[in-house]
Amino acid sequence: MSLTLRTISREQHLAYIRSLPSASHMQVPAWADVKTEWGSENLGWFDAKGELVGAGLVLYRQLPKVKRYLAYLPEGPVINWYAPNLEEWLRPMLAHLKAKGAFSVKMGPPVVIRRWDAPAIKAGIQDPDVKRLRDVEATHIEPRAFEVADRLRRMGWQQGEDGGAGFGDVQPRYVFQVPLEGRTLDEVHKGFNQLWRRNIKKAEKAGVEVVQGGYDDLTTWQELYEVTAERDRFRPRPLVYFQRMWKALNAEDPNRMRLYLAKHEGEAVAAATMLIVGGHVWYSYGASANHKREVRPSNAMQWRMLQDAYALGASVYDLRGISDSLDDSDHLFGLIQFKVGTGGQAVEYLGEWDFPLNKLLHKALDIYMSRR
């Protein structure tokens, strides 16, 4: 296959994404409007007939004082990763980005390598000798993913360290997903563990009401999110980030981003954002109050979001990042414990990969990031 690569318009890029079953929400053109601190470019791959056969959103972050850039394709590009001629897809991309002044390229192939179902994870949690997800035998392994990794290494790509680069925008290698395709809603509900089903019923009895919010409700979201940030000790994003996200994504597609609020006695006590691209639906950000936790608003909200994802015809409901730690003394253990209750699967992606176009500047960036 003879491939050419060039800059394309946002309209061409969006039309291509819409022609696919799904793609990452970080590879839609509007994501560039969310990430205003980065420059951006829409890339397109064309076959010999001139048909658009791949696309990628590139984000550019400039180094201080010099016109050199880190080029980042989060969870992309959207190409045929299993193509035997993968080098012919990626070589022109590297040449193009180098000509644009990139000193290093970071990308996140949307390629799944392993899956673990809920019973396998639970067995791992109960085994005192098991500390990490990778110590548990996977329920499903994708052999082609190993071939992709081998091809990338042979081309000179380097596998990024988990959680260690990209100006703080590194994406999770492990996520948790609930498959919806080929299942009834009743089957999805029966897949929840006993505690989840009990908590959903408890919320219902207590009168928890889950509603869809709008742009004006983002201030309520922010209050709950900042309470959550203080409780869980992370630095929250400002309200303007979510307002920008709402405007940018919903201008591109009116159903790209949703906000859900779980209310008890008229008071919002939990909230979450949802993102939708084709058949892939993400639970993006979540927040909850410190009080009224006993009425289980978060369980009620997740169940409503899952039902709505199903009604949209989604093939997967994605609860996003988890740590691979199965050690109950780890501060991130609660995350996988909460999500495994949905009866879904832990999913490992290939992770992020770097290509140093200028080894000296790439090394300098690594040193800078490690000292932050």
From TrEMBL:
Keywords: Acyltransferase, Cell shape, Cell wall biogenesis/degradation, Peptidoglycan synthesis, Transferase. Gene3D superfamilies: 3.40.630.30. Pfam families: FemAB (PF02388). InterPro entries: Acyl_CoA_acyltransferase (IPR016181), FEMABX (IPR003447), PG_Glycine_Bridge_Synth (IPR050644). It comes from the Bacteria. Belongs to the FemABX family. It comes from Streptomyces glaucosporus. This is Peptidoglycan bridge formation glycyltransferase FemX. The keyword Cell wall biogenesis/degradation applies.
